[in-house]
Amino acid sequence: MKSPVRRQYEFFPKGFTLIELLVVFGAIIIVGSIGVFYFRGFGRRQTVTQAAETLRTQLTRVRQKALAGERPSACPISNALESYRFSWDSTSYSVTPQCGGAILPTTTQLPANVTLAASVDCPASGYLEFGTLARGTDLTNDCLLTLSGAGSTASLTIKKSGNIE
């Protein structure tokens, strides 16, 4: 004799229909593609943010070296360290100690599709100098550097005093 509970479930199909499976898989594909789209945009924005943080860190390090009068080993002993020169173009920036002689700059390339632009208050020459032993910079106005790419921008300001914000 069959129990009443077992008899009640004999008429219901076991498993899912093809339509139910197609609806569920379609919803998963749509939600997944939206997630991938937003994740790629987030990654591009993070590239600009990371490039700006790297630039800020390197500028701060150069400023600290200039304030301390830290002399690179490549500087000739007979020449005094005058400053550290920070120069830029749209795809890279470099730092060169100014102490006489031919010293190769330390150049950093920006990530692909990220560009560097300077405000009109920045020197037209494309470089500025951090003077040694608390002499500040050679700026007459604050200099705004802007990194942009993939619909995102990040800015930092170099003050006349040499502070980086």
Based on the model shown, name its key terms.
alpha+beta; three-stranded antiparallel sheet; 2 helices; minor pseudopilin epsh fold
Rg, Cα atoms, Å: 30 Å
CATH class: Alpha Beta
At the fold tier of CATH, the topology name is minor pseudopilin epsh fold
- Look at the helices and sheets and give the structural class: alpha+beta
Number of individual domains: 1
Q: Provide the succession of SSEs.
A: HHEEEEEEE
Backbone shape: elongated
CATH architecture: 3-Layer(bab) Sandwich
Overall mean pLDDT stands at 86
The N- to C-terminal Cα distance equals: 84 Å
Share of residues in strands = 15-25%
Count all strands and give the number.
7
Q: Which regions have little confidence, pLDDT < 50, spanning 5+ residues?
A: none
- How do the strands line up in the largest sheet? 3-2-1-5
Summed up, the helix count is 2
Helix content: 25-40%
Major sheet: size, sense and barrel closure? 4 strands, antiparallel
